[in-house]
Amino acid sequence: MLAAVGLRPYGALVLIAATVGAWALIVGPATLVAGAGQVNQVASLDTGRALYLQGCASCHGSAGQGTPNGPSIVDAGAAGADFELRTGRMPLAAPSLPEVRQPPAYDEAQIEALVAFVASLGNGPAIPDVVASVGDLARGRQIYIANCAACHGATGAGGTVGGGFVAPGLDLADPRTVAEATVVGPGPMPAFAFDRQQLDDLAAYVEELHHPPHPGGLPVAEVGPVAEGFLAFFVGIVTLVAVARWTGRAPR
Ligand code: HEC
Ligand code: HEC
């Protein structure tokens, strides 16, 4: 094949080198040096900006500066945006609605693009690193009881916190959401400055709360001892009455 076009093997190499060189001159040296990662980031920043202008700017302003419909998010950071978007709190359908957890409105790639764009608006916190599997349950429990249980309940079931606010149950919160919530402090929840180890411990404990041990036997949908006791009483009394009536029937 090479022989057919009259080229020796090294001739082909020269040809390839010349082609690459010409391409580099045309597209410019920067692109070659930048590498795929950076090109991707530019692409997702553009996608993020487009999504933001469409879905968020009407309330938060075109540069995140805020409007009468929504607060400034210049310093919400990747952590703030990721938390709000993954838990479906944002976008709000109307400015006066409360933030609630719901299925996310965007897919994974769109969330990443929006998060990159919001992070680029200012100097907000990054998404915290957290690995629940290396956390210590005993330390996590201490941190949880001291800082979170007052609002979210000792079992993570949630509760009212006054001022018309409700601390949600933590059953849907994965380690990333837990860590982000402590960094962000959404709504009436305070922000906490935990270190990496404390975040791992805390996340491990919240994971444990998702699957609590049941030393007393069947949990009966986790409704608590009164309902469980009632169920035991009800089943027991019906059985006893049935047995009593059956054995006590007079012979004819
Ligand atoms: C209809 C208006 C509206 C739209 C649309 C909207 N937001 Fe919001 N956003 C709000 C309001 C109001 C708050 C404050 C809510 C609160 O504190 O309970 C808020 C809060 C936030 C926060 C937390 C700010 C903080 O400092 O606590 C972030 C981050 C955020 N929005 C990002 C977004 C993103 C990203 C989008 C687009 C996908 C979006 N929002 C769309 C109205 C809106
Ligand atoms: C003063 C009460 C209060 C304290 C203390 C508190 N939280 Fe919260 N937390 C809230 C409220 C209220 C919300 C809902 C905020 C919103 O939606 O705007 C919330 C939201 C969350 C969420 C999001 C849940 C979801 O599924 O969307 C997580 C996770 C969370 N808190 C974890 C924690 C952890 C961990 C601690 C302890 C380090 C803690 N909170 C301490 C009140 C509190």
What would you note in describing this structure?
This protein is 54% helix and 3% strand. The chain is an all-alpha fold. It has 2 domains: 115 residues, Orthogonal Bundle (Cytochrome Bc1 Complex, Chain D, domain 2); 113 residues, Cytochrome c-like domain (Cytochrome Bc1 Complex, Chain D, domain 2). Strand 1 and strand 2 form a beta hairpin. Helix 2 packs across helix 5, helix 6 crosses helix 9 and helix 8 packs across helix 9. The chain is elongated and about 110 Å long. The structure holds heme C (2 copies). One heme C binds next to helix 3, helix 4 and helix 5.
Rounded to the nearest angstrom, the radius of gyration is 29 Å
Second-tier CATH architecture of the largest domain: Orthogonal Bundle
Overall structural class, as computed from helix and strand content, comes to: mainly alpha
Count of distinct strands: 2
Order of helices and strands: HHHHHHHEEHHH
Strand content: under 5%
Topology, element by element:
Layout: H1 9-27, H2 29-55, H3 57-60, H4 77-86, H5 108-119, H6 137-147, H7 149-152, E1 159-162, E2 165-167, H8 175-184, H9 196-210, H10 225-247
Antiparallel strand pairs: 1-2
Helix pairs in contact: 2-5, 4-5, 4-8, 6-9, 8-9
The structure holds heme C (HEC) (2 copies).
The site of one heme C has 23 residues, from helix 3, helix 4 and helix 5.
List keywords for this structure.
252 residues; binds heme C; Cytochrome Bc1 Complex, Chain D, domain 2; two-stranded antiparallel sheet; 2 domains; 10 helices
Brief rundown of the structure:
With 252 residues, this protein is mainly α.
